[in-house]
Amino acid sequence: MGFANAINSAADFLNGYIWGIGMLFLIVGTGLVFTVGLGFFQFVHFGDMWKRIFDKQDSDSGISSFASFCTTMAMRIGTGNIAGVAVALYAGGPGAMFWMIIAGMTNSAVCFVECTLASLYKNRIDGEYRGGGPYCAARGLGWKKYAAFMAVIFMIGTSCFMPAAATYTICDGFRNAIGVPMWVVALLVALLLALIVIGGIKRISAIASMVVPFMTIVYMIITLIILIAHIGEIPAVLGNVISSAFGKNAVFGGGIGIAIQQGVKRGTFSSAAGMGEASPTAAAAETSHPVKQGMANAAGVWLDTVVVCTCSGLMMLLTDCFNTAGGYVGSGHAELATMAAAGEGGGVKFVQLAVSTVVGNFAPILIAIMLLLFSFTCLISYYYEAESAAIYLFEGSGKEHTRKIVTRIMQFGMPVLVFIWGIIESGTAWNLSDLALGTCTWINVFMLWFLFPKARAMYKDYERQMKAGNEPYYNPDVLSWDGVDKAMWKEINAKQIAAENKSSK
Asked: Which of 63-72, 219-228, 395-404, 449-458 has the lowest mean pLDDT?
């Protein structure tokens, strides 16, 4: 336990700096600058964002936009949407939810930029599209050493540390619901993860495409039931959220600074915008224009943070099933007083208690199942990002065998770590996940600032074609830079380019 406590203390210490005021300026500032620089695209093209999700183009090299969207959402709609929102309410009060929503809206611009660039700078490796932060840094900026550094951090962060919170949340949910020992659930999760990731991106995306729509709809139905049951209390709850967001509600014991910090932190954890998690799956998609995939993934941030996180928050607030670190104790369930007396923080328990007010004793197992679906899909997406980062380190001809060996090691190594994370202490799990998320976000967003002009140029090319009444496609002969695989893009859009050349004669 001494070693585990040392790891927890070190992670907590580092998080104090990584998630300090600098992170608030980084995330909020980047989101605002990108939003303004792109002409508030997430509002101007709100309908178009959702339309791009259902582009059905795919190939032997890439998956469809819908499959890519679902795989990305598998990572986004997870631990942060349930347990993460509860943690934010506990630490920052109801006001944290307001800032979480604001962060989601602006973070969609960050996600758009990183996913557009990932698609632009992707290339084929072993017959599959590969891309992401390291690929963008190397090909878009020529920063090969920085790209290698990114790849190492991403690989370690998403395979070793990010899964900690997700795995612990699954195991804790079933322990609370039906008393299953955490190690048993951890073992089952680890075995199932290994079975799926061995199938590669095709199997990962197929599982995500089946599970993500189902689990999202079910969770929203649960929220709707609670909304209907407490419809008369909605105005008062929303008023508390807004007043607490600006530090004007002392009842909950939190100030504006804590509310903003927790809202941005958990909003970023939930959406992963800026961290680079969505980039590899965006690059894996078969699309005719990089901006199309950027649009689809930007819509995902809205669904994840603005919609699903709000669902979790409203569940707890409307039923008054939450406590705060500042001393507020909810009246929605008798267990809340016991938790407060024991010094227990926020987590999945708040959501389970909230749901129990409308579905009774079945609530714990229902939320445990939802957590299994939400958090497990996170794990398979974490794996793919880690694999894509590892592949970058060993790209190039003559290294095919090395890539296979590295991939196989990760396919078995990550499940082993998942088993370990399933039986550690809650604070350690969240601190390790926060550490990985924060570190990856800093190094990825730094790179995005330098590549933002190219993302904006791609967006203008997309808008030009849309205004002309054409279905946008990317022609590297019209707009391109060093590092873009022009031959690959010409092959992808061969029919459109041939038709354009014919019409111009």
From this structure: 63-72
Query: What is the value of pTM for the model shown?
Result: 0.81
Q: For residue 380, what are the CA distances in angstroms to 28, 189, 205, 419?
A: 28, 11, 9, 14
Quickly count helices (H) and strands (E) in the chain: 25, 2
Residue 461 lies in a domain: yes
Range of weakest confidence among 61-75, 139-153, 274-288: 61-75
Q: Is residue 504 situated within a structural domain? A: no
Extract the tokens encoding 123. Answer: 């290339």
**For residues 189 and 363, what is the distance between their CA atoms, to the nearest angstrom?**
21
In a domain, 416, yes or no: yes
Q: What's the total number of domains in the chain?
A: 1
* Residue 112 and residue 42 in contact, taking contact as beta carbons nearer than 8 Å: yes
φ, ψ dihedrals at 340, nearest 5°: -65, -40
**Which position has the higher pLDDT, 265 or 37?**
37
Q: How far apart are CA 235 and CA 122, in angstroms?
A: 47
Mean pLDDT of 83-112: 82
When pLDDT is cut at 50, 70 and 90, the band that residue 180 belongs to is: confident
Range of the domain at 278: 7-492
Q: Is 270 exposed, middle or buried (0-12, 13-18, 19+ CB in 10 A)?
A: buried
Provide the CATH number for the domain around residue 74. Answer: 1.20.1740
The answer to whether position 499 is within a domain reads no
Residue 39, phi-psi category: left (phi > 0), alpha (psi -120 to 50), beta (remainder): left
Q: Give the up-direction half-sphere exposure of residue 272: CA atoms within 13 A in the CB hemisphere.
A: 31
Q: How are the residues of the chain apportioned to helix, strand and coil, as percentages rounded to the nearest 5?
A: 75, 0, 20
